[in-house]
Amino acid sequence: MGKKIEKIGVITSGGDAPGMNAAIRAVVRACAYYNIECVGAYRGYQGLIEGDFKILSPRHVSNIINRGGTILKSARSSEFRTKEGRAKAYKEIKKAEIDALVLIGGDGTFTGGMIFNEEYHFPCIGIPGTIDNDIYGTNFTIGYDTALNTVVDVIDKIRDTASSHNRLFFVEVMGRDAGFIALNAGVGAGAEEILIPEEDLGLERLLEALKRSKRSGKSSSIVVVSEGDKIGKNVFELADYVEENLPQYEVRVSVLGHMQRGGSPSCFDRVLATRLGVKAVELLLDGQTNLMVGLLNNKVETTELDHAVKGKHHINKELLRVSDIMSI
Amino acid sequence: MGKKIEKIGVITSGGDAPGMNAAIRAVVRACAYYNIECVGAYRGYQGLIEGDFKILSPRHVSNIINRGGTILKSARSSEFRTKEGRAKAYKEIKKAEIDALVLIGGDGTFTGGMIFNEEYHFPCIGIPGTIDNDIYGTNFTIGYDTALNTVVDVIDKIRDTASSHNRLFFVEVMGRDAGFIALNAGVGAGAEEILIPEEDLGLERLLEALKRSKRSGKSSSIVVVSEGDKIGKNVFELADYVEENLPQYEVRVSVLGHMQRGGSPSCFDRVLATRLGVKAVELLLDGQTNLMVGLLNNKVETTELDHAVKGKHHINKELLRVSDIMSI
Amino acid sequence: MGKKIEKIGVITSGGDAPGMNAAIRAVVRACAYYNIECVGAYRGYQGLIEGDFKILSPRHVSNIINRGGTILKSARSSEFRTKEGRAKAYKEIKKAEIDALVLIGGDGTFTGGMIFNEEYHFPCIGIPGTIDNDIYGTNFTIGYDTALNTVVDVIDKIRDTASSHNRLFFVEVMGRDAGFIALNAGVGAGAEEILIPEEDLGLERLLEALKRSKRSGKSSSIVVVSEGDKIGKNVFELADYVEENLPQYEVRVSVLGHMQRGGSPSCFDRVLATRLGVKAVELLLDGQTNLMVGLLNNKVETTELDHAVKGKHHINKELLRVSDIMSI
Amino acid sequence: MGKKIEKIGVITSGGDAPGMNAAIRAVVRACAYYNIECVGAYRGYQGLIEGDFKILSPRHVSNIINRGGTILKSARSSEFRTKEGRAKAYKEIKKAEIDALVLIGGDGTFTGGMIFNEEYHFPCIGIPGTIDNDIYGTNFTIGYDTALNTVVDVIDKIRDTASSHNRLFFVEVMGRDAGFIALNAGVGAGAEEILIPEEDLGLERLLEALKRSKRSGKSSSIVVVSEGDKIGKNVFELADYVEENLPQYEVRVSVLGHMQRGGSPSCFDRVLATRLGVKAVELLLDGQTNLMVGLLNNKVETTELDHAVKGKHHINKELLRVSDIMSI
Predict the structure, then answer these.
(1) Chain A residues inside the 8 Å CB shell of B190
(2) What is the pLDDT of residue C201?
(3) Which HAMAP family does the UniProt entry name for this protein (chains A, B, C, D) (predicted)?
């Protein structure tokens, strides 16, 4: 059995997401509750490599539950992808007497953790923090719900001007490989069409749908497009294509971009982050490793990090169907 | 088996909740998709009794997905609780050639529907719309997620002034019989203590907790209290009691009240309402009745209306424990 | 002296702005208060040409004070720029027995009104409704304050992710000819640099400022750029240029776009729109014409439409200076 | 002439207001710009008495422009009202080598500053920070605009539920001696009636107005009541009175309370606070004292502290009239 855990390190890594601070806070407070020390490393794995540590007490995480971003900063560390980088990180971790790690991030973060664990048998628990919701082993990742609300709120604003001017808007949202944000925010915003990487609608069907929408008397329309849509055109080309083929439409494009990563987290994300943060600490204290904590069927459950990385979180087919029915 | 469904009626009844409009929209559009008519009745069961109907086409529900309240208005009808009232309602329903009903509301709404169904064998499907989340058969009721965000947003503001002045705030939130809002919003807002009807903390333990909090260096505190807390004192008496016994605290009270029922629904509530609205129509078309649609483990499922009314949606014990850990 | 005013027409024209609905509501209610009729025309001048009118009573404008966009829709009418178009409009206006017009919009809208007045001696009062704040004769245009809050709110979100990742963001905001939004929202969002059309900072000075900012220990930065910045590069070229010359920066671009036109108006914009709407009606009843109502030094004042169009609303030099001091 | 200013102290005192942090940030950055030191004292005058100081560099005020509350905390110090208290404060100030003070707060804060200046000839400049807008010498106090948006946003939510249930709501807002918030937020929220301390409407007229409103077909109504309304009844008594006399109304009460003091400041408040903060520092450097900086006619102007305290900021009569017209 492993050594008794007396000091836990925590990092945030990869793209930042609202609720990461709530997760850090939960890890820190759970450590205090169980009378162990907590240390944060800055800028993800890079902070481990550089020994850029800070002892975190409950006082340090006061009033951060409502803040976007991450007080520990985040980064993608190319150095940690090398054997030498990981060796440096291990040396710094031992020097700091850290016994286990909580890794808050996405696929890349977890892959790093698994390799590190393989090489050094160092206890690691992952917490899924990313707005993309593309992680197997949890129904919801931390930050996803907030991003949906941000997108829906912006599309509500765009709809004001779209319907005042009888325009067609293409709105690009985040999700390079997964259409979770596009599909859910699209349904939530009442979008007429939703284009996602998981489903190749085809340009012809899009034109048909827009023609039908015009015929049915709709004077304005919103099409939500996922960054990673497979239709083979980016959102500007798509807009040009539609404007050429449907001259009755005045088309505009809006790329929402990085604002989707920020903002004060929703209640759902704060509670999720708090539950997962506590569980991560408890698992480490219980001698577990190489697991990701997640929410499955409203219960906190664990998944092997390996499965979390290799598994595929599939889009909800029922919601796709509902989206079609709504666009009548 | 019953007659073919060609016209569906829809009502919103009981306390209003954000997302009711999204549910109405989904019912209307699903009807259009399946080529049947949809009729809305105003002010819940009272509109059925008075024959206060309006044909609803997809055009009527444009741009309502983002609006709080209910375009069909809501009310509690004492007349519908009488045999005569229900007879009048049945007569009006037959006159309007309505074949089935979608009932959006809570316990009281569903009870009315069951009695009506028993007396007239009239197909009824319920959709849980209430901010209280106190319905058995669904993990989430429509409006609950939005109410949580509203509460958390307000407590974030209160915390600004609480921590500027080193004060203790008692914040009363809705939930007469169920502490869902208090517990989840309390955890989400980082409240120091949470008082809910399901758990009698006891005044002594509250004082102890607040003393400990002061000793640990916290300069301000938020205590979230559910309307229906069983501690035997209302929120003002509670505040007085604490101020008398802990003179080191300057105490303030805030009763959030009806604002919790309003506002633009969150993405979660809009998507939930849309999915449940579609399913309700499809169940009626499939010849089903006396069911409530709900979200269980992220799938749309059905529960007998009878069970929905009699069953008890229990508070999450794990979250209670997490809340204790966080208040360290 | 002109004929007694018994029926007033109202249009919204040009780009839509939050608060236009509040202005329409104020015009309608003021008409009711003074016992005259009010008629709305759809899609700006185009609605006048097509006789696309609707009688507006106070009931029609219930619950619109809080909505973005314009219930009367807006458009730019090329037909109204022709003599024939205006003749058609006059014919329709006379047929509908409209005695005077309230024109809600910007420069283009007012120019149209002046020409129409010149040709037909038809009473017209203008209300400045545009997010750009580029109208002479008013300190604030309707929609400007809301747009500032929208921009600041989005930049707050971007800053979360910028500071989590130590990045430099270029954020493009609206304002083709005027830097009001960029300057005020830039100061409000704590931007490190602000690039506006009124002031050619020069690329060299921008690089210098960013270098100094990096040296002073800032780990992330926001540069707000007005659409119409005179620096001779669009925001993407600007970002590339900086990334080439300051490789220590990881640069990202965000173009806010049309969302800036939408959303529920701020209290300031609602009150402003209400005051100006009432005054416009009272001026027409008083036999006035060819005036714009505006807010000067917190009082509702009038300016000749001619001056409003030809005059230049200058940027606040003191605020430019304050902005420099803040970017230390 | 006074001694050269080399170190400036800053406090926030009295009720906190959104934008106080933006003002602190502006003072700190302006000091850095002019190469002088800046010191913050905690909890207003009490911090001066206790020598509870902290050196503030630009780094300390990063990312606070968007936060409600005040990082320097606020309090009302009874000790500073005594000669002994002020003597202690002077001693601490001299010990810390502070040469001048920026006082952010309201009437009480400024009175304290004047007495202190009289006794010790110590340079003091006041910045009006309070949500109440009840200060002579400035059109707008810092925090007022944000409070208006908060109130309007909450009433928008209440209206959702009011109009769903055909109810009459009495909403109490802050403003013990001044009806600025009630009047402006009332107009902005489209309230049917507004009760403010400056104007005794009388109970009879209120009943008349509500009856007329009911007759004209309005199904729901909002009455905004200022805390300090002179009608002689508190908001609950008022509601009871109306319910007794107008049984056709179902009446509810909502007291907004302290949430009005919190929240992220609006762009307007951030820009205002920034401008006033810079000016305060420049005035001190210029050898001035006993002045309040304010915004008059969109320019930063100064008023003798004495006048600011004794003068009366009157409610806008035109807006009262507009409010009557709107309630038709």
Answers:
(1) 25, 63, 65-66, 270
(2) 73
(3) Phosphofructokinase_I_B1 (MF_00339)
